[in-house]
Amino acid sequence: MNRALYRPNLACLPASLLAALACAAGAARADPAADDPVIVTAARLPAELATTPDAYIVTGAEIEARQATFASQILETVPGLSVYSDGLFGVTSVRMRGAQSDKTLVLIDGVPVNDASQPEGSYDFAGLDLSDVTRVEVLSGPQASLWGSDAIGGVISFTTREPNGVRADLEGGSYGTTRVSGAVGRSTDLWALGLTASDIASTGISAADSRNDYSAYQPANQPHPILHSNEPDGYRDLTLGARGRVTPTDWFSVDGQLRYNKSVAAIDGYVYVPPNSVLTTATYVLADTNDVAISESTLAAIHARLDGAFGLRHDFTVSDYQLRRGDSGESGDYGYTAQRQVYRWTVAKGAAEDALGFEGGLEHQSDRASLSTGDQVSLGNTAAFGVIHWRPIQRLNLTGSLRYDDPQSYAAQTTGRASGALDLGAGFSLLASAGQGFKTPTISETVCDFCFPSGPSVGLRPEHAVGYDLGLGWRSADGRLDGRATAYGLDQRDEIVYSPTYPFRYINIARTRSRGLELVGDAVLGGGFRLKASYAYTDAIDLATGEQELRVPHNSGSASLFWVRGPFDAAFSVRSESDQADTGLDGSTPVTRPGFTVANLTGGYKVTDHIRVTARVENLGGGRYEELYGYGEPGRSVFFGLHFRP
Predict the structure, then answer these.
(1) Which residue has the higher pLDDT, 288 or 65?
(2) CB neighbour list of residue 351: distance below 8 Å, 6 or more residues apart
(3) Whole-angstrom Cα distance, residue 11 to residue 409?
(4) CB 37 within 8 Å of CB 52
């Protein structure tokens, strides 16, 4: 690994926000109910989980029990999510309810972090370290009336921790993997200040599976010099954070956050294979190249809360997210930059348990990104939104939301959503929702980057979606058993694709339809055991071709058995996916990626009230499997850790 590539570039931190951070003593807001699975905060107006359709929460306690390092290890257990990466540390994508990965809006402490320079605007989960994350919330289905563009499939929200005391983690294991993380801080009613840091390194494995069959691309007696190499692809990831808060009175507070991440990953790419006695036309094929991908991001945010007259809460937030990414090696050299600034004001009244509550607000978002030509282009959006929660009778909860977006260069969009939860008695509840989504063309799509002949896109429209679902939940009287079944539909139109025929440009043509069923269950058993399980059936169809959408398994599920007894704890997890449609080694030929089942085992022992030792075995059976066709996953891997908690 080239250490110069890994060296963090702190000059990219926005000076204005650094100054404001210092003045505010600051980093992001303290987590509300960090390990409380009852309240959903990503719904803008906090709501009870039991009355919120399509919501799924992973607490900090579960993250620690699973010994999860990266976000993908948690998200792959959430029903309705398809998680895949091009190699152990390659680009990691998430599809929600069959929608493309660019239809997932990602928030870190309420700040949108999708990549404005990526042609479709996706978010890469590969470098999202969980060392400072204390809560993950998933809202499935169109959420445009809450968060605007990009939330057609849904929203994934990460909440980070306000440090209080000293935390430290040291872990090492297979493939030369090491992880060192720590946090130090002080949190009181009047003020808080904390620092976090995490460093992860691994020699990795070869992303291009060494067992790939290249017989269709070369004669047996003339092996390509690169196709059969098997060089490990190493990885290094650094995350630094600072956060603080001042609360001079009980009606006013200011807090802020600064989060920096840099990752350097050796990856594999596509090599040119000329015509030969087996291959009639030249093509590019996935192989073990010497490419290196670099990603560097900075998130900074300042938030102020003011409790005003008539019990109204005013929140003011300014955030800045900057991203630089690039690639060098066999596939060529390139780099891109992106910046997203968001200014938001909200006014709210009422808590989750109140009979009536509302939140309204104004928001302006400004995106700036570079193109393949090196030029910088900007787009903006201004929005007004409102959410209301009403409980007309004790057994019935109703929620409605409406949002008006006025994006630059495109027609204004008005979206709405309505949901309800009815207590049927005997522990049963009926939940339903219907909502709209849209996605404004990205900067690349708007100016038609990579188009031929060159020139701006003509007549592009925002993408649109309608989603609806019906769920039945049940909770035992003692709260030890809890489950929910949800059937849903998601219809998308005006999807933007890159035309495969001349002229090569972005066009509105695709239409997709998803139908599915999601099951979740949670059981507190005797003897210190707890069982969590989920299952999803997803049928996502490209209506233009009648074919299944790529990288969406029909059937997927997971089950985890947790155990705690005195100083000991353990967790056994199994995850399974059925076959799925994918593309071959040339990136275009249709293939079927085989299904797989993989199991992990974790365990820990509390030596003292503050020190815990852990062990983890991933891919317990050691079998070969692929999340993405052609990209191998690690075999059996073993890790040991030492953890200190205040």
Answers:
(1) 65
(2) 46, 357
(3) 33
(4) no
Residue 38 confidence (pLDDT) above 80: no
State pLDDT tens for residues 3-26.
444 444 444 444 333 333 333 333
The Cα angle at residue 270 between residues 579 and 368, in degrees rounded to 5: 95
In the DSSP assignment, the letter for residue 525 is -
Q: How far apart are CA 350 and CA 45, in angstroms?
A: 9
Query: What's the mean pLDDT in 566-590?
Result: 95
Instruction: Name the token pair of 287.
Output: 């192989």
The three-state secondary structure class of 497 is: strand
What pLDDT shows up at residue 9? 47
Residue 95's Cβ-side half-sphere holds a number of Cα atoms within 13 Å equal to 21
SS3 state of residue 559: strand
Give the DSSP H/E element, type plus range, for residue 245.
strand 235-249
Q: Give yes or no for a contact between 364 and 389, defined as CB atoms under 8 angstroms apart.
A: no
Contacts of 123 (CB under 8 A, 6+ apart): 94, 101, 104, 106, 113, 114, 115
Tokens read off for 574: 């199994």
- The answer to whether the CB of 251 falls within 8 A of the CB of 306 is yes
pLDDT digits (tens, 9 = 90+) for 521-572: 999 999 999 999 999 999 999 998 899 999 999 999 999 999 999 999 999 9
Instruction: Give the domain range for residue 280.
Output: 3-644
CATH code, 313: 2.40.170.20
DSSP 26-67: --SPPPTTTT-TTEE-TTSS-EEGGG-TTEEEEEHHHHHHHT
Assess contact for 199 and 237: CB atoms under 8 A.
Answer: yes
Q: Does pLDDT of 458 surpass 90?
A: no
Rounded to 5 degrees, what are φ and ψ at 512?
-130, 160
pLDDT value, residue 291 = 86
**Percent of all residues in the chain with a pLDDT value above 90, rounded to a whole number:** 74
Q: Look at residues 539, 577, 442 and name the one whose alpha carbon lies nearest to residue 84.
A: 577
Q: CA distances (Å), 521 to each of 63, 480, 532, 537, 601, in order?
A: 18, 11, 6, 15, 20
Question: Taking phi first (over 0 means left), then psi (-120 to 50 degrees means alpha), and beta for anything else, what does residue 450 get?
Answer: left
Q: Quick one: pLDDT band at residue 2, thresholds 50, 70, 90?
A: very low
Answer for the pair 482, 522: CB distance below 8 angstroms, yes or no. yes
Tens digits of residue pLDDT in 402-415: 999 999 999 999 99
Which tokens belong to 85?
Answer: 């990466």
Burial (Cβ within 10 Å: 0-12, 13-18, ≥19) of residue 251 = exposed
Instruction: Supply the Cα-derived Rg of the chain in whole angstroms.
Output: 24
Quote the DSSP letter at residue 366: E
Token pair 């055991």 in the structure block, residue: 529
Which of 149, 8, 157, 173 shows the shortest CA–CA distance to 71?
157
User: What helix, strand, coil percent values describe the chain, rounded to 5?
Assistant: 10, 55, 35
The number of folded domains in the chain is 1
Measured in residues, the chain has a length of 646
Cα separation, 506 vs 473, whole angstroms? 43
**CA of 116: how far to CAs of 87, 144, 158, 340, 341, in Å?**
23, 18, 19, 7, 11
H or E, element range at 516: strand 506-524
Q: Which two tokens stand for residue 259?
A: 């989060």
- pLDDT confidence band for 236 (50 / 70 / 90): very high
Can you tell me the distance from the alpha carbon of 517 to that of 515, in angstroms, rounded to the nearest whole number? 7
